[in-house]
Fold:
Amino acid sequence: MNPIVPEFTDIENAHQIVQKYAHRTPILTSKSIDEIVGGELHFKCENFQKVGAFKFRGACNAVFSLSADDAQKGVATHSSGNHAAALALAARMRGVAAHIVMPENSPEIKKRAVAEYGANITFCKPTLQARESTLAKVVAETGATEIHPYNNFNVISGQGTAAKELIEDAGEFDIIIVPVGGGGLLSGTAISTKKLLPNCKVIAAEPAGADDAFKSFKSKILVPSENPKTIADGLLTSLGELNFAIILDKVDDIITVSEESIVTAMRIIWERMKIIIEPSSAVPLAAIIEGKIDFKNKKVGIILSGGNLDLGRLPF
Amino acid sequence: MNPIVPEFTDIENAHQIVQKYAHRTPILTSKSIDEIVGGELHFKCENFQKVGAFKFRGACNAVFSLSADDAQKGVATHSSGNHAAALALAARMRGVAAHIVMPENSPEIKKRAVAEYGANITFCKPTLQARESTLAKVVAETGATEIHPYNNFNVISGQGTAAKELIEDAGEFDIIIVPVGGGGLLSGTAISTKKLLPNCKVIAAEPAGADDAFKSFKSKILVPSENPKTIADGLLTSLGELNFAIILDKVDDIITVSEESIVTAMRIIWERMKIIIEPSSAVPLAAIIEGKIDFKNKKVGIILSGGNLDLGRLPF
Structure:
């Protein structure tokens, strides 16, 4: 049986919520990058989103979609990344508790960000098993609703609002490219794009060192991520089941890129556009630089997924 | 005798030219920075300007204000910084030659930027004397018009368009703060601001390690910069005479800041706003952080002067 996945009307409903709390982020272009690559690129800047990442859209929709009864028991997740901060802020905006399970070895900067948003943090050993068992305990004790970072109907619907805005604000596209990790952004983007622009291709870019989505897409069997290794630390996770079903149905292609191209693409965006993006955000431009997409004379939309990274540990 | 300085009508005329070729840069705000400092800050993002700095405004106005006869002989300057790139691009846009004298020890990245804009580069020894004598020779040989980076009527008029846009787009301000090096941006900002918002204070922020403007302003005697030392490499120059006359007449105060505050302010803007600014741009926020300006509950405009720096040599 196929899982129940969001449709575009779910994204429209999510947008009613998301636009009340999130930024409608700007779409930037760069003549200088267009000259380098020979195409027309439009960058949707989710690095300027609240908490510095698109993740706020999905977290916001999930938190504000809860019934009053469920909401007052709070929300919970395990995450060491942008989803934790996003869920913490969305919960604070609704005035409910956020319970975040974080591996004890999470970077200090991320622990601080989540704490600043007022979340209750529970630390655990840095293994998936410890994260899941600790979260189960927290949920049992509090009655909080678990909000998975990407394998969640309302999260996917929320993430789909980024592509919806991109198309509403910048018109038609030939290709839209996004990075893929767990597949929340990719699946939401595919639903919005295929509804609004049926002829636009939706392509995912993935680090070769974390190519579970590529393998899954090509084999049509969900392959978990095994010892992934990439500077794009937002893309280490395995695809979710809901996301995979949507991706198989609606995504045109998934292509992989090298670490070197990711760093080159990141540096080009920093230097030419004067904006800060995290490595995950650079993966789509890396795919263009590697020449793996036929985008010459095409209008291309790219979602820059976020801008959170440790400035003391840059790759250049 | 007082020198002839631009008035606001000159800035209005400059704007007719500048707006045809330059970006009307966005004005960004940051709730998170407002919370840290306790004021309402509006940042005019000249780091997003062409060539990555406000300098393009002045260069553009100077180049396009030349008569056809003068223009066809080209323009010339000595500079190792943003003005060189700005003049080169403005000249290319008008289809005339730019002759740039650069010290032979200029950073490779700056040499490349100027060369990419198609300028004729003449290298010289890295002394002011060599720069001036080499420029004189180039001007004698080519008949090009020298465009000084800041001590120039049309350059000042062009730089004043940034504050004009800031006020037109974001309304009234209590205080506008800009960094001061040679004084081009400061003098242009003061002319626009005092005309459009007579009650708004115009304050300059300057690194303590390059405090010639501070000393000149306090003593009312033009004091040249002596062995200046600061990470804010756009602010090493001495005030120009034209600029100083305007500054004495229209600027409310000049305050100095430490190197440590500049780096802290720069990091705050990078981390919270996800935009790349060069150290010079961080000097106004450094003044706010140091508590040297009474800005609580005030609406403050800051011009972020540029975003060009070597990403391989960051101070954090």
In short: The mean pLDDT of chain A is 96.
